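User: Predict the structure for this protein chain, please.
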Amino acid sequence: MNYIEERPWGSFENLLDEEYCKVKRIIVKPEQRLSYQYHHERTEHWVIVQGEALVILDDEEYIFHKGMVVEIPVGTKHRVENKFDKDLIFIETQTGIYFGEDDIVRIEDDYGRNKNED
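Assistant: Here is the predicted structure, written as structure tokens:
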């Protein structure tokens, strides 16, 4: 059974955690957003499976709908926000050489977390 980790913005569940990739199911509550961040060691690929996502990639805003894929290369600043009234759910696949939560470099965070805090 997979463990669900609660966060101020929603929750995530690790679906697969191997040396070659990590896969998460991420739920963002209405009117919440993740930190504006980037990674040194991994790329991320998000598949939107429910709702709509406002995604910021290197300071540019985009809207992604159910079935769309967001590609986030290593070093790309990114943030996802749920501006709508139902949960946003996406599947995140990480590829690269390291998948630890300490590879998060936070630029801005609504919840007062430091650059490497969960």
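Residues 4-108 form a domain with the Jelly Rolls fold (CATH 2.60.120.10).
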